[in-house]
Amino acid sequence: MHGPASPGWLLVALCAATGAYCLLRMRSPVEEQRRAAGGEALMGFGMAVMAVPAAVFTQPAWAWPLYAGVFGAAAVRALWWARTSPHHLHHLVGACAMVYMSVSMALSPGTHHHAHGGSGVPLVTGVLLLYFAGYVLLTGARLVPAPVGRQDTQSTQGNVATGGGHPGWGDRPELARACRLSMGMAMVAMLLTM
User: Fold this and answer.
1) DSSP character at residue 171
2) 60 CB contacts (<8 Å, ≥6 apart)?
3) Can you give the pLDDT at residue 145?
4) How many beta carbons lie within 10 A of that of residue 148, not counting itself?
5) pTM over 0.70
6) Cα 154 from Cα 171, distance rounded (Å)
7) What is the pLDDT of residues 70-124, one digit of tens each?
8) Taking a C-beta distance cutoff of 8 angstroms, is the pair 47, 15 a contact?
9) CB within 8 A of 191, min separation 6: which ones?
10) Which class for 82: exposed (0-12), middle (13-18), buried (19 or more C-beta within 10 A)?
């Protein structure tokens, strides 16, 4: 992606750390959490690779179609699983956004993408920015602690799956939300550089 090198490296570190935590979440005993964590790990590492500053490393021309293919396959997988869990609809939008960015970079490598047919933000970029900005706000609001006496349903699932007590690292709902929040913010940052 285009942009200054320092924020680019921060974005790479954030996405890679999020992807690594999502790999840890894949050890959850709850199948739905493992499935979601796998898609999120792919997104995190994919975003980290795509966010490497162009001033440091220019992606080869074949990389962008490869990314588009990988995330296209992830979009099909998310579409399949969306029939059982609405959270996979978000994975579908994220994978489609990655395909869109990959195709945009493949079509005009080495140039800034602010000029897609004139002034202003391209329609698809604008719609994706609105979606991910809203997602970040909603996810951030969900990280605010709940009043005492109200228990999170995901936390209950984690406790049941682990046999009571405290949920394991892979089953902490607040950490999963923080991961999703981080990736949502990273997606907004990447879309802003388009």
Assistant:
1) G
2) none
3) 76
4) 6
5) yes
6) 8
7) 999 999 999 998 888 777 899 999 999 999 999 998 887 554 444 444 455 689 9
8) yes
9) 97, 101, 125, 128, 129, 132
10) middle
